[in-house]
């Protein structure tokens, strides 16, 4: 059997399955496909018959679950001056940050000054370059 025939057979089986599930036969007629019904499987029919609910059985509405009993948690003790304490902590952290940045700036300036002084001393100690016209 060539792959084209196998493909067509698979499409036909798929269409037959779709028709059996949806109950539509128009799709196959529109596609001009010869539909061969899939072989019946009695084991699946018996299993589906057992698990399918009866059509006449009334559907009971879903009852909402009762909320669990609340556990009485002790109320947290809140200081009346929490905002003031947080503001103090924030101010202290900002002051520490500024001091840290000032120290970095001061050290950078000192390093720059020392490096520039070394460079100037090295340039002063060097002999003058020879003149091209001498």
Describe the structure.
By secondary structure, the protein is mainly alpha-helical. Among the domains are: 3-43, no CATH class; 82-127. It has 4 helices and no strands. The chain has helices at 3-22, 26-31, 42-51, 82-125. It starts with a helix and ends in a 9-residue tail after the last helix. The mean pLDDT is 77.
Summarize the topology.
Layout: H1 3-22, H2 26-31, H3 42-51, H4 82-125
How much helix is in the residues? 55-70%
- What's the mean pLDDT score? 77
- The end-to-end distance, rounded to whole angstroms, is 102 Å
Poorly predicted ranges: none
Task: Give me the number of helical elements.
Answer: 4
Main beta-sheet annotation: none
Number of strands: 0
Based on Cα principal axes, name the global outline: elongated
Structure class: mainly alpha
Q: C-alpha Rg, in Å?
A: 45 Å
Order of helices and strands, N to C? Answer: HHHH
Strand content: under 5%
List keywords for this structure.
134 residues; mainly alpha; 4 helices; elongated
Compact summary:
The protein has 134 residues and is an all-alpha fold.
């Amino acid at each position: 059997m060539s792959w084209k025939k196998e493909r067509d057979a698979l499409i036909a089986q798929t269409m037959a399955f779709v028709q059996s599930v949806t109950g539509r036969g128009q799709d196959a007629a529109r596609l001009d496909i010869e539909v061969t019904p899939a072989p019946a499987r009695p084991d699946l029919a018996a299993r589906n018959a057992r698990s399918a609910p009866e059509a006449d059985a009334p559907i009971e509405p879903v009852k909402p679950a009762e909320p669990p009993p609340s556990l009485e948690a002790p109320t947290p003790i809140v200081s009346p001056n929490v905002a003031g304490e947080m503001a103090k902590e924030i101010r202290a952290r900002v002051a520490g940050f500024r001091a840290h940045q000032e120290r970095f700036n001061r050290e950078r300036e000192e390093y720059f000054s020392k490096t520039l002084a070394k460079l100037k001393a090295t340039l002063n100690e060097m002999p003058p370059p020879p003149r091209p016209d001498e």
